[in-house]
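FORM 12-B: Structure-to-Sequence Request
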């Protein structure tokens, strides 16, 4: 555990960020290998069966991902204020809430699977495999969202190294189980889903034990099982973040039928494009978590003079981490994209994947700005503004995509995506320099 507001800021940022960024890359690498195994052994149809519902599953999880940001901010503020008993109450209460709500939502999704698939316009040729994969992933979604909860919790305590260890464990174990299930047991997409759930459960066992060890280290004797006050306090920070995440992934969810309607090749290509984006995004998104934790701890300790300095250092760090990875992605686009296809594959899916990486992915630099200010505004309790800017960016993506996709196909889909990053970056930068967030302090 570490107080980020003490010592040299550059050293604190880099030491805190490196494990988080590596952990994020491993997590996304897990998904990339997942998709690559499907593409290599199950072909275009298998990859499409996994990708056609990816937008909906991400949308389903996004509420909880956003809420864990509220848990992180609440924990960081309590840690900065040295209110350790409240940290344990916050942890337990929110863990119970997240598990209860997610189980209910997951069951409802399975019950209404047919209307969901009809809305998504899933290609009939992959519908059977897609339903098998969807049911397993949704029923295990409570397990799958908890590593995010624990990662954010430990990061709020200034500990980024332990989540890296567990992410590595989950990734390595998951890859091994995928290979066994598909190559040796011939399980198809069901094997990929089950391997994901089982490897995550193993990681959660270690996370739970580590949390107990942290409470002992902080000498917390209080043993309150559920505290409504902590739920209310977390909701104030987490609800806007949840809405923000929902709005962001709602755009992908709404766009999914448009992509699926363009055919199986478009669905498969979009799945590859999403993976390439996620790998690069994981770098600056996890780097920017340093800003939110540093800002929240500074606010908790009332060290307001640190705030602008944190933004500046966070921006430099984000660019430094992203640039080499993005450059490699563009330069080696073909061999990287071929990881998702059968040996010697030549076709529309590959061409569309290459177009995204070479032409549209570089625009992700604008999203570095968006994510930086999202994390900063959360740290200074201006969480409502994060929702507003994300809503504007998502609306821009949906409208521009729907307008362009009919005429330009996947080029229109990619153009709408890039346009939303640029549009939001301009607005959110102007908002930061207006200084409105100072009223929240």
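FORM 12-B RESPONSE
SEQUENCE OUT:
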């Amino acid at each position: 555990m570490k107080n980020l507001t003490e010592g040299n800021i550059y050293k604190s940022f880099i030491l805190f960020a490196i494990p988080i960024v590596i952990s994020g890359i491993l997590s996304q690498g897990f998904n990339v290998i997942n998709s690559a195994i499907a593409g290599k052994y199950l072909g275009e149809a298998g990859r499409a069966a996994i990708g056609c519902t990816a937008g909906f599953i991400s949308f389903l999880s996004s509420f909880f991902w956003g809420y864990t940001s509220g848990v992180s901010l609440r924990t960081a503020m309590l840690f900065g204020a040295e209110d350790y008993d409240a940290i344990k109450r916050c942890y337990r209460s929110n863990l119970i809430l997240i598990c209860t709500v997610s189980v209910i939502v997951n069951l409802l999704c399975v019950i209404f699977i047919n209307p969901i698939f009809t809305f998504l316009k899933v290609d009939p040729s992959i519908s059977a495999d897609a339903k098998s994969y969807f049911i397993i992933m949704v029923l295990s979604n409570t397990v799958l969202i908890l590593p995010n909860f624990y990662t954010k919790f430990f990061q709020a305590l200034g500990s980024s190294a332990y989540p890296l260890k567990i992410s590595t464990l989950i990734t390595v174990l998951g890859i091994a189980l995928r290979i066994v299930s598909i190559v040796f047991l011939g399980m198809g997409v069901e094997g990929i889903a089950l391997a994901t759930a089982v490897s995550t459960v193993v990681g959660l066992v270690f996370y739970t034990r580590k949390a107990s060890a942290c409470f002992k280290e902080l000498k917390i004797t209080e043993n309150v099982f559920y505290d409504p006050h902590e739920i209310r306090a977390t909701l104030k920070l987490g609800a806007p973040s949840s809405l923000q995440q929902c709005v962001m992934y709602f755009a992908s969810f709404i766009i999914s039928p448009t992509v699926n309607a363009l055919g199986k090749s478009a669905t498969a290509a979009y799945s590859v494009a999403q993976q390439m984006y996620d790998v690069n995004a994981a770098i600056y998104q996890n780097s920017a978590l340093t800003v939110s934790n540093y800002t929240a701890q500074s606010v908790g300790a009332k060290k307001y003079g640190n705030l602008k300095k944190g933004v500046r250092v966070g921006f430099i760090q984000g660019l430094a981490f992203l640039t080499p990875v993005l450059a490699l992605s563009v330069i080696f686009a073909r061999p990287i994209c071929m990881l998702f296809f059968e040996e010697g594959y030549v076709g529309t899916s590959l061409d569309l994947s290459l177009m995204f990486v070479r032409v549209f992915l570089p625009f992700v630099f604008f999203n570095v700005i968006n994510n930086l200010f999202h994390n900063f505004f959360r740290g200074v309790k201006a969480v409502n503004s994060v929702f507003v800017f994300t809503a504007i960016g998502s609306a821009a993506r949906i409208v521009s995509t729907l307008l362009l996709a009919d005429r330009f196909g996947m080029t229109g889909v990619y153009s709408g995506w890039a346009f939303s990053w640029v549009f939001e970056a301009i607005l959110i930068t102007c908002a930061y320099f207006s200084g409105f967030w100072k009223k929240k302090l």
